[in-house]
From TrEMBL:
<dbReference type="InterPro" id="IPR001296">
    <property type="entry name" value="Glyco_trans_1"/>
</dbReference>
<dbReference type="GO" id="GO:0016757">
    <property type="term" value="F:glycosyltransferase activity"/>
</dbReference>
<protein>
    <submittedName>
        <fullName>Glycosyltransferase involved in cell wall bisynthesis</fullName>
    </submittedName>
</protein>
<keyword id="KW-0808">Transferase</keyword>
<dbReference type="Pfam" id="PF00534">
    <property type="entry name" value="Glycos_transf_1"/>
</dbReference>
<feature type="domain" description="Glycosyl transferase family 1">
    <location>
        <begin position="221"/>
        <end position="386"/>
    </location>
</feature>
């Protein structure tokens, strides 16, 4: 008899968690498990990537209000949810006022889940599952509103770099049977905050939908000048991504081009950045530093993969990451990758083998790009390695099967 799994996700917009969820769905074997997918709000480009053997549960009007603009929540006739979200916002602001921190303020979903979860109806009408997976925040929903013999929550973030209310989150995490961490670095960061939860950790690499990535990468072509080096970075403009320093990195790289122009096969470079967010301040800095024509923001895209496929080097200059999905996606597309030495970097790249790790400062990033450009043999070695290795992580699904007593030898 097949096992029943339900997976909860807030939406399916372009993002690392969404991409890895599609990878997990593709890795799950429909001959072994029946899969229900509960997406709070049915929007996002990855909705169309959900495999046809996955049972997409109907959108629920209440759950869909989790991230709608507040005015829209009230307009659509959900005053209780609107009031709960206002209360969550007030509590969150009070917490940060009492606990000022330079870290990213990422506690919002925990407050929303805590308050809004109280006024949402449960999902017991879907029946009892063998396994319930909360794939992203808020983790209250699966914990409190789903019937399942076993429940697990996915951990995507390095807790060393976000400001959270430990007293609010701990009671949620500790009630899960397992906490799935995407990398050793993410595990280390989480346990630095919640050391007593060590025995609940299950490390499981992100799973990526290779066929989907490769297909999307060929759906458009990017105009490229042969004698212009094309760099690419993909992601939302945020403190974590460190895009505010790209103009400085580009300025350093431009100086290297000037100093060593006769040795470089490219006459110039373009750094293409794909992702949402306000880049007006970064544009102004680029103008001041004389790299306005080099640093190019493309804005958000439903399909960033042609940009990755069309670049010469993928650069990921983050201040911190859990484990970047887009770095793996670039490796799936066999692109040389340069990442900064954030705390979880060594779990992402085998330095010099399948990518390059450089120090987290502007000059070091520029020098790493220049060094890779000048070493065509190293580029070829990295590309050839990527072509012969699997970066989809599909075998990790066995860890999920083991939680519900499944294995390769079971009768189908």
């Amino acid at each position: 008899m097949k096992k029943k799994i339900i997976i909860s996700m807030h939406y399916m917009e372009i993002g690392g968690a969404e991409s890895s969820l599609i990878g997990l769905l593709e890795a799950l074997d429909p001959s072994k498990v029946d899969i229900d997918l509960f997406v709070f709000a049915h929007h996002g480009v990855f909705m169309s990537a959900i495999p046809n053997y996955v049972n997409l549960l109907p959108e629920d009007n209440g759950y869909a209000m989790m991230e709608e603009p507040l005015a829209m929540v009230f307009k659509k006739g959900h005053p209780l949810i609107g009031m709960a979200r206002l209360l969550a916002k007030w509590k969150m602001n009070r917490f940060y006022k009492q606990n000022p921190s330079e870290k990213d303020r990422s506690a919002g979903f925990a407050y929303i889940g805590n308050e809004v979860g109280r006024v949402l109806h449960n999902l017991y009408n879907f029946g009892e599952y063998d396994l319930a997976i909360s794939y992203n925040y808020p983790h209250n929903i699966v914990l409190e509103n789903v019937m399942a013999k076993k429940k697990i929550a996915w951990l995507h973030t390095d807790y060393r770099h976000i400001s959270i209310n430990e007293n609010l989150e701990f009671p949620i995490w500790r009630k899960y049977d397992q906490i799935v961490s995407i990398s050793p670095g993410v595990t280390e960061g989480f346990l630095s905050v919640f050391p007593s939860l060590k025995d609940k950790i299950l490390e499981c690499e992100n799973m990526l939908p290779k066929a989907y990535i490769e297909t999307k990468a060929t759906q458009a072509s990017i105009d490229k000048e042969v004698d212009v080096l094309t760099l690419c970075s993909v992601g939302r403009i945020s403190n974590a991504k460190n895009y505010d320093n790209i103009p400085n990195m580009a300025s350093e790289l431009k100086e290297l081009f000037k100093l060593h122009g006769s040795k470089i096969k490219y006459k110039d470079f373009k750094w293409v950045i794909v992702g949402p967010g306000d880049h007006s301040t970064i544009d102004a800095l680029s103008e001041d530093l004389g790299v306005r024509d080099n640093v190019i923001f493309m804005g958000p895209s439903d399909n960033p993969y042609p940009y990755i496929k069309g670049c010469d080097i993928y650069v990921h200059p983050s201040r911190y990451e859990g484990k970047s999905i887009v770095v793996r996606e670039a490796q799936v597309l066999c692109k040389p990758v340069i990442i900064t030495n954030y705390p979880t970097a060594v779990s992402q790249i085998n330095n010099g083998v399948d990518g390059v790790i450089c120090e987290l400062d502007n000059k070091s990033v520029a020098e790493a790009i220049y060094a890779l450009v000048m070493d065509s043999n190293r580029q070829s070695t990295i590309i050839n390695y990527l072509k012969t290795h699997d970066y989809t992580g599909g075998a990790e699904v066995e860890k999920i099967y083991s939680l519900i007593g499944l294995n390769d030898n079971m009768e189908k």
